[in-house]
Write a structure and sequence with these properties.
The complex is a heterodimer of chains A (115) and B (115).
Chain A (H helix, E strand, L loop, with lengths): L3 E4 L2 E4 L5 E7 L6 E7 L5 E8 L5 E2 L8 E7 L2 E6 L8 E7 L8 E2 L3 E5 L1
Parallel strand pairs in A: 2-11
Antiparallel strand pairs in A: 1-3, 3-8, 4-5, 4-9, 5-6, 7-8, 9-10, 9-11
Chain B lengths: L2 E4 L3 E5 L4 E8 L5 E7 L6 E7 L4 E4 L2 E6 L4 E6 L8 E8 L10 E2 L3 E6 L1
Parallel strand pairs in B: 2-11
Antiparallel strand pairs in B: 1-3, 3-8, 4-5, 4-9, 6-7, 7-8, 9-10, 9-11
Classes of the chains: A mainly beta (115), B mainly beta (115).
Chain lengths: 115, 115
């Protein structure tokens, strides 16, 4: 149980275009999902907390107009990287938890390459 | 400032031996600590959670200790196998409510078990 599905797994886009990444909780409802970014051999950095039916909470230093998050239902959160630049190239991972102090269940990540 | 350090970026051990990974932290008072496994190009997978009032947790060949005086957690894999080769991440949360916004990850230790 507690499976999180993330799509696409890889995407290459041209500079200036936008990319949408989907995160779905397959067998549970997630009122809260988390979006992380990870650089090679580096830790996961929390970008934002996605709340179903309300605005996302962004961490300090994360541009909310660049990384648009929508949590339209209890099973789907999307991250859209707008006007992508090469420096946005990274590994983006979403996660969700059932409730309380429970482990995070992660998607398999999206490798974004902006050319 | 708050800091999480995981011992050596890479650790190589011989198959059958016990692998011991270290997670040290400063300027934290974590409510609980978690260990995750991450394979290349994949999202992390939860392994074990230990609370501040617990000294030790076990799961099959895995054992985690948590010493809040030393500000350290040790993660042991006994009878290690090549399939255990992966990056292992520790994560601390200072928020007992489980909101996960304060869940902070270490940069990980890459374990290689040699046949």
């Amino acid at each position: 149980g507690a499976v999180v599905s993330q799509h696409p797994s890889r995407v290459i886009c041209k500079s200036g275009t936008s990319v949408k990444i989907e995160c779905r909780s397959l067998d549970f409802q997630a009122t809260t999902m988390f979006w992380y970014r990870q650089f090679p051999k580096k830790s996961l950095m929390l970008m934002a907390t996605s709340n179903e039916g309300s605005k996302a909470t962004y961490e300090q230093g994360v541009e909310k107009d660049k990384f648009l998050i929508n949590h339209a239902s209890l099973t789907l959160s999307t991250l859209t990287v707008t006007s992508a630049h090469p420096e946005d190239s990274s590994f983006y991972i979403c996660s969700a938890r059932l409730q309380g102090i429970q482990p995070l269940h992660f998607g398999n990540g999206t490798r974004l390459t902006v050319t | 400032s708050q800091k999480i350090e995981q011992n050596s970026e890479a650790l190589n051990i011989q198959e059958g031996k016990t692998a011991t990974l270290t997670c040290n932290y400063t300027n934290y008072s974590p409510a609980y600590l978690q260990w995750y496994r991450q394979d290349p190009g994949r999202g992390p997978v939860f392994l074990l959670l230990i609370r501040e009032n617990e000294k030790e947790k076990r799961k099959e060949r895995l054992k985690v200790t948590f010493d809040t005086t030393l500000k350290q957690s040790l993660f042991h894999i006994t009878a290690s196998q090549p399939a255990d080769s992966a990056t292992y991440l520790c994560a601390l949360d200072i928020d007992p409510s489980g909101s996960a916004r304060q869940l902070t990850f270490g940069s990980g230790t890459q374990l290689t078990v040699l046949p």
